[in-house]
C-alpha cells in the first residue's frame, strides 16, 4: 500500500514537472513568435481548430490576430500567413528568416538527420508520408519514441541495414583494388581517395 502511494506521488510529481517545463518552454518560445492564441501544454491549439471546418477556424483566429499568426499543433508552433501581402512579405521581403524547414521529429530520429541535400544545402528527409501514426509521432515524438509500437521495428530494420552497409564498406576497404572496381562501393571509395 505504501509503495503504491509513493509510486503515485512520484508519477504525479514527474507529470507536474513535465507540464511546468512545457509551459515555461512555450512561454520563452512565444516571445519570438508572431501573436496567436495561447496554447495548452502538449496539445497546443488543437481544441480551437475544427478539423471539419479548418479554414473557418483559421479565419476566426486571423480576425483576432491579423494576417500573420502562430498556432500550435500539439507542442509544435506553426506560423500561418494569410493573404498575398503576408506571403509576399515573408517569402520575398524577409526570405532569410523564413527559409528552411522546421524540425521533423520522426524523420530526424529515424534517419538521424541524414538525407539528400536540397538546393539550399539543407537535408531532405527521405520517405515522407502522411498517416495518422506519423502525424501522431510528429506531434508527440519526444514521448512516442519511448512507447512501444511499430516505429521501433522500422528503426531496428534501419539499424540492421546500416550495420550491413557498414560491414560491406569495411570489407571492400580491406580488399580494394583501385584499378578494378567491383561495385558502387568500390567506385565510391576510389573517388574518396582522389
TrEMBL record:
What family is this? Belongs to the cytochrome P450 family.
Task: Please identify the protein, giving its name as recorded.
Answer: Uncharacterized protein
Q: What is its main location?
A: membrane
The cofactors named for this UniProt entry are: heme
Q: Which Pfam families does this chain map to?
A: p450
User: Where in or outside the cell is it found?
Assistant: Microsome membrane
Taxonomic placement: Eukaryota, Metazoa, Chordata, Craniata, Vertebrata
The GO biological-process annotations, alphabetized, read as:
coumarin metabolic process; epoxygenase P450 pathway; xenobiotic metabolic process
Where, by residue number, does the polypeptide cross the bilayer? 6-24
The cross-references to InterPro entries, in alphabetical order and at most eight, read: Cyt_P450, Cyt_P450_E_grp-I, Cyt_P450_sf, Cytochrome_P450_fam2
UniProt keywords (A-Z) are: Endoplasmic reticulum, Heme, Iron, Membrane, Metal-binding, Microsome, Monooxygenase, Oxidoreductase, Transmembrane, Transmembrane helix
GO MF terms on file? arachidonate epoxygenase activity; heme binding; iron ion binding; oxidoreductase activity, acting on paired donors, with incorporation or reduction of molecular oxygen, reduced flavin or flavoprotein as one donor, and incorporation of one atom of oxygen
Cellular component, GO annotation: cytoplasm
The protein's superkingdom reads: Eukaryota
Family annotation (Gene3D superfamilies): Cytochrome P450 (1.10.630.10)
Amino acid at each position: 500500500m505504501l509503495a503504491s502511494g509513493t509510486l503515485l506521488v512520484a508519477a504525479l510529481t514527474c507529470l507536474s514537472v513535465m507540464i511546468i517545463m512545457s509551459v515555461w518552454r512555450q512561454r520563452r518560445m512565444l516571445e519570438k513568435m508572431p501573436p496567436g492564441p495561447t496554447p495548452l501544454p502538449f496539445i497546443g491549439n488543437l481544441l480551437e481548430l475544427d478539423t471539419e471546418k479548418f479554414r473557418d477556424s483559421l479565419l476566426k483566429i486571423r480576425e483576432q490576430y491579423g494576417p500573420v499568426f502562430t498556432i500550435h499543433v500539439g507542442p509544435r508552433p506553426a506560423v500561418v500567413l494569410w493573404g498575398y501581402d503576408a506571403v509576399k512579405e515573408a517569402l520575398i521581403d524577409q526570405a532569410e528568416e523564413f527559409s528552411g524547414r522546421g524540425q521533423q521529429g520522426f524523420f530526424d530520429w529515424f534517419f538521424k538527420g541524414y538525407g539528400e541535400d536540397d538546393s539550399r544545402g539543407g537535408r531532405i528527409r527521405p520517405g515522407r508520408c502522411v498517416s495518422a501514426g506519423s502525424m501522431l509521432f510528429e506531434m508527440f515524438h519526444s514521448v512516442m519514441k519511448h512507447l512501444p509500437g511499430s516505429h521501433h521495428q522500422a528503426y531496428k530494420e534501419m539499424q540492421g541495414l546500416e550495420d550491413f552497409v557498414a560491414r560491406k564498406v569495411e570489407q571492400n576497404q580491406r580488399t580494394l583494388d583501385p584499378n578494378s572496381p567491383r561495385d558502387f562501393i568500390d567506385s565510391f571509395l576510389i573517388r574518396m581517395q582522389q
